Automatic annotation (TrEMBL):
InterPro entries: AceGlu_kinase-like_sf, AcgluKinase_fam, Asp/Glu/Uridylate_kinase, Glu/AcGlu_kinase, LysZ. NCBIfam families: argB (TIGR00761), PRK14058.1-1 (NF010659), PRK14058.1-3 (NF010661). Residues 259-288 are annotated as: Disordered. The gene is lysZ. GO terms for biological process: L-arginine biosynthetic process via ornithine; lysine biosynthetic process via aminoadipic acid. It comes from Natrinema hispanicum. The lineage of its organism: Archaea, Methanobacteriati, Methanobacteriota, Stenosarchaea group, Halobacteria. GO terms for molecular function: acetylglutamate kinase activity; ATP binding; N2-acetyl-L-aminoadipate kinase activity. The keyword Amino-acid biosynthesis applies. This is Putative [LysW]-aminoadipate/[LysW]-glutamate kinase. Residues 275-288 have a biased composition (Acidic residues).
Length: 288
């Protein structure tokens, strides 16, 4: 069984424990694909260059980055550049033969470029153009499987390869959680989303209200209702991973002892494929 691990890019996340855990799992013969975020590092680099990061809110209330051409240049420099290289370097120091890959390598992650996005500003819906983003539609699972079969541990970063209407390709931004979800689905793997909290909380300010697991559509509805802010995207990614074929998804604390192993043992919020609503049930409800 393969495990896909996503390490969050928040400042509060220390990757050291997760990297040591990857080394332990690989030593035990497990296949691991590591993915990572890095929005904080991108924002910090933009600010050092005298640029202001731009975030927009969709009509549905989801807040995300607007990636203009300048931001995309910084993104390519930071994500597959410094951050990915640092993680590969650290894994080698843990005894892991790691290989850094971006979503553009070998069409590992690809989809259509989205050059304009719908946003909500001052209570009004608008179209904002000049975006460099895309939704992942295809994963080159063969590239990852070949890398793993060779005894190497892939470390994957966005950007992805975005197809233009003209037929050409452009590197574009994509959400790192959803990238991890797409990979986990394609490999039918367990997905561990490591972040700076220990799971999804019914009360976002109270760790004691952590939801241990969800195995039915009704239980998953409770998880979605509880998710706020950055956790909303993680729950969306979890659903996409399970729809794509992932074996399970766990949202867990990156700073815990042996964070990946403990997450797989049930320490975070575990979501099982049973949370997906059966299509026949959905059609019946619609008919009623």
């Amino acid at each position: 069984m393969t495990t896909v691990v996503k390490i969050g890019g928040a400042r509060a996340v220390d990757p050291e424990g997760a990297l040591a855990d990857v080394a332990s799992l690989v030593e035990d013969g497990e296949d691991v694909v590591l993915t990572h975020g890095g929005s904080t590092a991108v924002d910090e680099t933009l600010e050092e260059l005298g640029e202001e990061p731009t975030y927009v809110e969709t009509p549905g209330g989801v807040v995300g980055r607007f990636t203009d051409e300048r931001t995309m240049d910084v993104f390519k420099m930071v994500m597959p550049g410094k951050l990915n290289t640092d993680l590969v370097e650290s894994l080698h120091n843990e005894g892991v033969d790691a290989v850094g890959l971006s979503g553009t390598d070998g069409k590992l992650l690809s989809g259509k470029r989205k050059s304009a996005v719908r946003v909500k500003e001052d209570g009004k819906k608008k179209i904002k153009r000049g975006d460099h983003s895309g939704k992942i539609e295809s994963v080159n699972a063969d590239l990852l499987e070949t890398t793993l079969a060779g005894g190497y541990t892939p470390v994957v970063s966005v950007p992805i390869l975005g197809k233009e209407k003209s037929g050409g390709y452009t590197a574009v931004n994509a959400d790192a959680d959803r990238a991890a979800a797409a990979i986990a689905g394609a490999l039918e793997a367990d997905l561990v989303l490591l972040t700076d909290v220990s799971g999804v909380y019914e009360d976002p300010d109270d760790e004691s209200t952590k939801i241990e697991s969800a195995a039915t559509p009704e239980e998953f509805a409770g998880v979605k209702d509880a998710a706020e802010g950055f956790m909303t995207k993680k729950v969306m990614a979890a659903e996409e991973a399970l729809e794509g074929g992932a074996s399970s998804v766990v949202v867990a604390d990156a700073n815990a002892d042996e964070p990946i192993s403990s997450a797989l043992a049930g320490e975070g919020t575990t979501l099982e494929p049973g949370v997906l609503e059966d299509e026949d049930d959905a059609e019946t409800e619609a008919a009623e």
